[in-house]
Amino acid sequence: MEAILENAKNWLTDFFDDKTKNEIQKLIDTNTEELKDRFYKNLEFGTGGMRGIMGAGTNRINKYTLGKSTQGLSNYLNQVYKDEQVKVVIAYDCRHNSDTLARTVAQVFSANGIKVFLFSELRTTPELSFAVKYLNCHAGIVLTASHNPPEYNGYKVYWTDGGQIVPPQDVAIVSEINSLSFEDIKFKADESLIELIDKKVDEAFIEASVENGSFNAKGKDDFKIVFTSLHGTSITVIPEVLKRAGYKNVTVIEEQAKPDGNFPTVVSPNPEEPEALSMAIKKAEEIGADMVIGTDPDSDRLGVAVRNLEGEMEILNGNQAMIMMTKFLLDQRKKKGITGKEFIASTIVSTPMMDSLAKGYGVECKTALTGFKWIAKMIKDFADQPFIGGGEESFGFMVGDFVRDKDAVTSTLLACEIGANAKANGSSFFKDLIDCYVDYGFFKEKLISLTKKGMSGAEEIKQMMIDFKDNPVKSIDGSKVVIVEDYNTATSKNVITGKVTPIDIPKSNVLIYITEDGTKMAARPSGTEPKIKFYFSINTKLKNAADYKKVDAELDAKIERILKELNIG
Asked: CB–CB of 393/347 below 8 Å?
């Protein structure tokens, strides 16, 4: 506790503003546990950048923690591009303080001689990724905490290709940041280097989204869509993209259309949570809509609901949406006679059905660590292989490579194209999904997230991962574990033969078990939230669409047995 107290007292010097000093002094005087949580560590870059609760302290998002990160990034950019005028672009979402924090970040960059393009109002994360390349910038920043609760904010860093930072840049930047003290931050802006941007970039991004996400689907006039931005940024662009692509029957949930960092109508602004789409689904039932789309605050994730076999709205999980979007893109390429070295992409905790799909279409499926930065890195590393599309289980998808992060804007349009086309052909999005199961295997997934907050929670998560490694699972639902993949050591072990083979993926704190019957279980701590996540995937054959409900119930029962057996959930 002495070290924590000393760290806190460092924030009482004259360098820090009066509001910050008063906040820290009050905590020193009255709230030991809160003080501990704010100063027991420094915020770090995770799978999605830097994300945390807002407030004063080293373990919080504030002008000083973001200022220090920006100063370190400025130093690195000026070292790497010392003979160039360095340029960055900054966007921000609807969260509390996003606009003022974006302005602070812009000021620090400009104080270091860096040209800044700052969006004049809130914009989506995919537009920021697009803008990096469109404006020929060396880096980009978006102020967002994605789908986290209202008290959070965050800071994502993008590199010259429009993808988030990866090795070796991320390690070098973090090292530079860690070498600094807060007093090294240059806050005095050079306003001549800060340029506000908006409509020109908006127009270019909208045109690119329509071009990449539209496939001249039939039946657009007869396809009804309900859309909700969940109080986030997508309201600035998705309605316009759908309109330009020819969709006229779009109902926007007005109660959730106004950007609001309190997210007043939802428990969580996360389309992964069924409750978040409840208002839109209710409207869809009222008006007889075919599809519901909801996006998270920075518009990189999307939730999709479609009518099931009973005609009721059913929310698809991220794996189902990813499979349908990928298959549709593959079908379009096949129609054009395009075959060759293309690849699709997914992540190690997403559905193995992506591999089955790739084999069926004669393309490669590359698998990355969790986080779209790794898919963006693949596009750069395998420049001779065209990237078709890809996604992850957590409701993210990327269409082509014009945006180098998950993109709910273009993916929303793509989902509508699939649905409209299916309906025009006498089928539906859901029926086409079942046909996909018949052709490539019926895969079903389940995610369990356990929240463990604070210093004690971090220790508990750490111990849980150690326990799974030291006491490996021997079987799952009666099927013997045959493969254990340990991404901390980048090794895959066949527990039957004892053979160990290297995994050609960067090391990460992930453990995966695979059984004889193809059941897969993965465990990993979240890189951006105080959670440990368990991913389950099971599969079987589906002989025909008529057996869907029976086999689906059997898979559900299997998942429940597994959760009970492992005492998870």
From this structure: yes
